[in-house]
Each structure stands twice: as C-alpha cells, then as structure tokens.
Amino acid sequence: MNSWILSVFSTMKGSATIAFIFLGILLFYLIGIKIYKLNVKKWLTNLGNYFIRVISNFLKKRELQYHRDLAIGKINEKNSRVRFYRFLNNLIIDLELKSKGFTPYSFLFVVVSLTFIGSVTFSEVVFNNFIMGIMLFPIILIGVLCLLYTSANIRHDARIEAIIEAENIISNNIKDGVVVAIRNNINLINSLVRPQFIDFLDNIDHKNYHVKTALLELNNNLGSVADDFIKKCIVFEMEEEHGIAGMFQDVIEINNIKTELRNEMKRRFEDIMVDFISSIVLIAIFLGGVLYFYPDVRNFYLHNIIGQIVIGLDMLIIISVFVLITMLRAKEL
Hints:
single chain
C-alpha cells in the first residue's frame, strides 16, 4: 500500500490529482463548515441514509418483480433464478434472519458487499495487489455462501424435522380442511415452526387472505422443503373432491421414507466433511511451513503475479470441492 502511494506521488499526474482532491476537501471545509456552518456529521448521516433508501427501494423492486414474474408464469420452478432465490430463502430461514426483516436479495447484497471488501482488504494486506482481490472475489463469494449454508445445517436439520412432524399432524387431521386441522392442532406443532403456522391463521382470520394465497405465503416462510405438501393442500382446498384426502396418507408414508434417507445422507455427509476439513488443515500446515522456512518460495507466492495466480487456482479447486459437497448436501431431500 505504501509503495502504491509513493508511486502515485512520484508522477506529475498523480501528484496533481491528489493535490486537487485535497484542494476540494479544503474548499468544502472552508465553504461548508466555516461559512455556512455545515454539520458534517449530520450531512454524512443524511448521505448514508439516502444511499440506504436508494438501495432498499432497488432491492424491494427486485423482490416484487421476482414474485410477479413467478405469479404470471414468466419464470417457473425449474428456472435457475428461482432455484437460486429459494436457496437464499432457505438460507435466511435457517440462519434466523427472515424474522429480522432480511429478504433473499437484501441478504445477497450484504454478503456480496462484505465479501468484496474482505477480498480487496485481504489482497492488499497479503499480496499488496488490488487486482488480485477482484480476481479472488467471485471465488471467495461462492465459498462464503457455501460456508453459510454449511453453518446453518444444524438449524436446517431441526427445521426440516419440525416441518415433517407438522405435515404428519396436519395430514392425520385433514378431513375437515387444512385451516381447521392447523387451528385445532396448533399447540402440537413444533415450536420451531409454530410461528409460521400462527401467521398463516392470522392471514386467514384477520387479514382476509384467500386460503391459496395464505398457503403460498406459508410455503415461502417454511422454505422449499414444504413445496409438495403445500401443493397438495392447495389442491385439497380448491378441488374438494370426494376421497382426495387419501393422498395425505401418502404424505405420511413419504415423510417416513424421507426421514430414513435424511439420516443416512446426514451420516455420509458428516464423514465427507471430516475428511475434507482434515485435508485442508494438513495442506494449510504444509503450505504455511514452506512459506515460513523458505523466503524464496514465500516471495514467489506472495509478491509474484504468477505465484499469486497459482494460489488463486488452488483456492478455486478447494472452493469447487466445497461447492460439490454443499450441492450434495442441498439435494438430500
């Protein structure tokens, strides 16, 4: 960083640019503070609030556009945009961020922003190379998303088990309708997902939601794991054909099979993660030792562009394996 500043000062163009910047700051200080008594703290706060409002409005429009496109059939469940949106939605549910006002797009914005700042800072400190931070940014971003997903697995498993349990309770009492089944058994539903079902009843009783709209909202709050069950509930409420309630017995049987498969997949995933983490730790220890004891190697990797690219490629390979493991985990149901 210091060498970059010195190189800028050493050129006429760089010195002039910095001089103009300082001159502008001085004029702002003299005019704004001395003459007009401008409150800098208040001005910066207002500027920050303005940018937050602009970004919030943009993200809100993106959310509304996504739901509108999905409603009119412009995009469907097989679309990559829908799959990624649901991945983010499941993630913020598992991380308990949805109840705090986060949406998939706002969560993505925060993660992207912080990851970019972290990537650039890391590259400046370690490699003294700003461009390297931009090159590493997409790799690190994917790794961060996978790491967040992995860190949410414990909550993810507990939530899925709670949803399956709730589906079984509702399916066993479905004969009088979905709303009645939920209302009569709300206290039996696991406390981990009970608030979502309470919100569903509130939407029906006090906000006058149509039952289909309320079920779709419930689906969004529970996550994609409840997709099949909610679809059956909508069919049951909309068609009301004789004997259609029998399909909910299939839900119970399928959930039992899913539970067995989940337990097996969970065990295998944990074994794979132990092997992966052990390998990464050993590689990190070996690389750290080499860089510490061999100055020429350290200089090549940290201060030579070819060495930096090699490190970037190594990170890409590690992140790719991590992504593959995460994808396997995401497909367990």
